[in-house]
Amino acid sequence: MDAYELLTRNAEEVVTDEEIRDLAADAAGKRAYVGYEPSGVLHLGHLLTANKLIDLQEAGMEVVILLADVHAYLNEKGSFEDIRETAEQMKAQFLAYGLDEELTEFVYGSEFQLEDDYTLDLHHLERETTMNRAQRAMAEIQGDETAKVSHLVYPLMQTLDIEYLDLDLAVGGLDQRKVHMLAREKLPELDYEVRPAIHTPIVANLTDGEGKMSSSEGITISMEDSTDDLEDKVNSAYCPPTRDPEPSEDGTERENPVLELFEYHVFPRFDEIVVERPEKYGGDLTYEDYEDLAADLESGELHPADAKGTLATYLDELIAPGREKLHELRD
Ligand code: IYR
Which residues does the annotated region (Disordered) include (predicted)? Predict the structure, then answer.
C-alpha cells in the first residue's frame, strides 16, 4: 500500500485532498497527532483513530498522542489527579494495542498549555473569535450540557495545540471536524500555518444501527470487556444482511454496525479473516478483503450469526493485550 493509501484508507474525510497528497509524497518523519481527553478506559472510538495512527506509522510518520488533561478538566471529566491517573493507563493500553513505541510520543497538554506564550496566544484567539463561532465548533464534543466559558476556551486551545506541538497533520473522529475547520480559519490570523486533517468515521450504535456508538449511551466495546462480554454484545448487535439497511420506522438512518466494525476495526489489522463453519454448513470461509465479506453477507453465503461470532473472536484478539495490561496495572 502506498503512503497516500495508508493515510486515506477508511477515512471519512480528508481536508484537503491536495494537502494530504503533498504530505503523502514525503511522509517519512512527518508528525501527526490525535488528542484524547483521558477518561475511562480505551473503547472502540479511541481504537478507530489509533488504527489510523498505526497506518501513519506504517507510512513512516511519527505520532504524537496528546493526553489532553487540561481539555478534560475544562470538559469536567474529573480532578486533575484523577485525569492524570487515567492518562497513564491510557498510554499503556495504546502501546499494548499495537502502536510502535519508537514512533509514538505521549505529551500531556499541561506540559505546554500553561506556558506564557501559549496563554497569550490563547487570549489573542479569544479576541478574534465570536462566542457563537466557538460554540458551534464545540457542539459535537460537548454533548448536551449548558455551555460554560470553559467550553468556548476548549476549541481555541485545541486550535493552538496544532501549532505548539509542531505538527504536520491533525487526526480525529468526524466529531472533531468543526474544531479543525476553526483551526484552519484562525491559525493564519496569528500568522501560523494551516495543517491538513484526516477524519475517521464514527461507528453506529451496536444495538440498532442508528446514531453513534457512544461510551455514555447504549453499548460500547472497551478494553475492559471479557471474552464473554464481547460475545454477548456482538451477538445482540443489529446485523441485517445488507450494507444499506432501511431507515427505522421513524425515518432515522441506519447502518450495519457489524459490517462497520469489520471494515474499520478488523480488516485494517488482520491480513486474513477466517469464518469457522462446520463442514455441513459449507466449511470455513476466508476473506482478505472487507468487500468480499460484505458481498457474502448480502448474498446470503455468510449468515449474520457466523459474521457476529467471527467479529467477536477478532475483536477479542485485538483488545486482549490491552485488557491484560489493565489487569496488571490494577492488581
Ligand atoms: N477534542 C478531543 C480531545 C482533544 C483533541 C485534540 I486533536 C486536542 O488538541 C485537544 C483535545 C475530544 O473530544 O476528545
Answer: 224-254
